[in-house]
Amino acid sequence: MELAVKSFLLLATALYLLLKLTAYLLIAHQNRIFAKSHNCLPPGRLPSSFLGLSNWVRLTRAAKRGDILDHIVSRFPIYGNTWKGRILFGTSIGTIEPENIKAILATSFKDFDLGPQRHDNFYPLLGDGIFTLDGAGWEHSRANLRPQFSREQVSDVEALELHVQRLMNRLPEGDGEVADLQPLFYCLTLDSATEFLLGESVDSLLSPELNPTGAARGGKEEMSFAQAFNVSQAYLVQRSRLRELYWIINPKRFRDANAIVHRLIDRYVDMALHPEKRARKAPEGKYVFLDAIAAETKDPKYLRDQTLNILLAGRDTTAGLLGFTFWLLARHPHVYQKLREEILSAFGTGLNNEGKRPSFSALKNVTYLRYVLNETLRLYPSVPLNGRTAVRNTVLPRGGGEDGLSPVFIPKGQRVDYTCYGLHRRKDLYGEDADAFRPERWEEGVGRGWEFLPFNGGPRICLGRMFPHLLVIVVAVGRLLTPSVNRAIRPDRSLLHSYQDLAEICED
Asked: Which residues 6+ apart lie within 8 Å of 466 measured at CB?
């Protein structure tokens, strides 16, 4: 009897392996036929060790040094603008070709999705939101959220001015004192984002003490929320680096931080669903994101998930644009002086000037500010690194063959990563000084079409992409561009570390 059982198990195992091998060979044959019918050729090959462990180790070391984006971009001049290689048990394709990115995000949009690990990795914090969903779930979220990001809804300059003034009050008054603006910018964007989303700001700029990430120390629940949100994001970064093995990282501190974040958002969701529980009503006519979407659905989990998804994107991407704009201005005094003269001419010497308040339309009158913003977003785009997974066999239009001009076959399940950080620094697109900060290049007609993607592109383009521009205008006009304040700005390498962390989690 025992011998019969063993024989059966061996036969079943052999049959299973035979079926798997047959299926593999059949799929491989079908893939070859598909690739040949589309004239596909293989892209450049990234050298890889067994299972791609060496490439993963190099990526991890670069992340610890704070230069993971430069590490990734350094591969393209060597292996081509589209390459393929093994990284941690999987195969990855990287590209900085505008036509390929256009195919992924627009012309072949339905051939790609975010991939299963994106949703499962981010679910503990973000749940089922616009940045974690694909297909019908994403389409439903997008349709519900799009009306909430009209120009009228995100252009409450008066509310922004209050938070900017609070930021100004935190700057040193004495000559020679240095201000680290980065934590203040994190507080500014957190305060303005929570007021827009929840109807009440967490007022982190009013805290007597701020830590280096912008979260305030203190006993108030709102301050604990800010700290917990930072902790949760830090763990999402670590999980993202492990790719398919993200689930290994799930410590109690991560779970506790998620619970704190959810608890506060749930409180505001409950008030949106039951307005009578509010201690004070919002001013007449004031727009509150959570109230607006609560009018469309009464599902508390849906409301919490969407709010957290928008908060994640809105806080850090906007703080990044603010930080890098003034970081670059501090390093390029001639650009700062030219911009200051234009702003003084357009708006005068501060906020609340009648007829000269900042607005989206003001960008038409401050051309050089628009150039400065474009140049900042070129060097440090809001989504520097992103990727999609093929849901069916498809092709990328360029990257194959020795000249890189032939199509590239992308089998079902293949991950394709694209980096706007690398795309925006291509010398053949932006000149030999592509790594330099030179706003004047935008007078030369650069950045056409899919060569410039500061907020992604296609159907998943960032809904709130206008808000960061407006906030930068308000901050700039709020007398931040004065000689004394400019000298007080301290460029900080930690800004680049924060940016690379954001690159790994704020994909859309």
From this structure: 149, 151, 154, 155, 360
Domain that holds residue 169: 122-391+415-505
Specify the CATH number for the domain of residue 185. 1.10.630.10
The annotation status of 40 as a binding-site residue, yes or no, is no
Pick from 4-8, 56-60, 68-72 the range whose average pLDDT is largest: 68-72
Task: Report DSSP state, residue 282.
Answer: P
Q: Please check whether residue 195 lies inside any domain of the structure.
A: yes
Number of domains in the chain: 1
Region of 348 (left: φ > 0; alpha: ψ -120 to 50; beta: rest) is: left
Q: Is 203 part of a structural domain of the chain?
A: yes
Residues 6+ apart with CB under 8 A from 245: 88
H-helix or E-strand spanning residue 161 = helix 157-169
**The whole model's pTM is what?**
0.85
Let me know if residue 226 belongs to a domain: yes
| 107 belongs to a structural domain | no
DSSP string, 194-246: HHHHHSS---GGGSS-B-TTSPBPSSSHHHHHHHHHHHHHHHHHHHHHTGGGG
Q: Is the pLDDT of residue 196 over 90?
A: no
Which pair of structure tokens corresponds to residue 247?
A: 């689930």
Res 257: pLDDT? 93
